Amino acid sequence: MCGRYAIDAEVNDMIIEFVLATGQSPHDWRPGWQAEQVFRPTDPVPILIETLVDRKDPEGPTQRRAEAAQWWLTPSFAKELRGKHPTFNARSETVTELASYRGPVKRQRAVLPARGYFETQTEGKTKTPHFVQAPEGPLFFAGLYSWWADPRKPETDPERWHLTTTILTRPAIGDVAQIHPRTPLCLPADWIEEWIDPKQLGTAEFVASALAASDPVVRGLRFGPAPANRA
Question: Is Phosphoprotein set as a keyword in this record (predicted)?
């Protein structure tokens, strides 16, 4: 599971570079978080996405951008913004089967950049918080996004629409398997474009390919004590 993760100045700079490359202004999307920050479920978090200009034309032009999304995916058919069942993580093994995710995984996939994430190791009654990160460079979590329209607001109200997201998880391998059986699906950097490409249909086979590509990244993850003021 991934219930808290952090960005730092390097990750923030990488997101800004992505934004500038799309022609956006960093001020168009950043909702006031700091260069170094810890995110928790339901917080607004930065996601990198690519969307079809015309959703009815899956082979048409696309547009990349960074957005702020609620870290708690709300499917379009939901009756409320935050349901009682947690949706900030989605298991990669079943993401193409479950109703909440099988729609978004087809063409609404996101990347969530991070410095690392927090995980608690439980041994008996002892709980030890750890911070998990790559030896060098940021992590790129595979995610999904979904737009939810508040039925209580009129169609002309700009606050009617809410962008939401989730992080895919996978079985842990390597050192991190010592502290928890699950870990975020961490993509290699050269998979970012492929993962967010809406022209690529998100089938079970495609998700399996992303899972296999993530193996070297996950095996290389390292962990240490979580800073007391950040855990």
Answer: no
Structural contact between residues 147 and 161, judged by C-beta atoms closer than 8 angstroms: yes
pLDDT digits over 139-149, tens only? 999 999 999 99
Q: List the one residue out of 116, 151, 147 whose CA is nearest residue 130.
A: 116
The answer to whether the Cα torsion of 52, 102, 87, 224 is positive or negative is: negative
Q: 3-class DSSP state for residue 204?
A: helix
Protein fold of 5-225: hypothetical protein yedk fold (3.90.1680)
DSSP letter, residue 205? H
For the chain, the distance separating the N- and C-terminal CA atoms, rounded to the nearest angstrom, is 15
> What pTM was computed for the model?
0.94
Q: Which regions of the chain are under pLDDT 70? A: 1, 26-33, 228-231
Spell 184-212 as b/e; 16+ CB within 10 A means b.
bbbbeeebbeebbebebebeeebbeebbe
Domain spans, the chain: 5-225
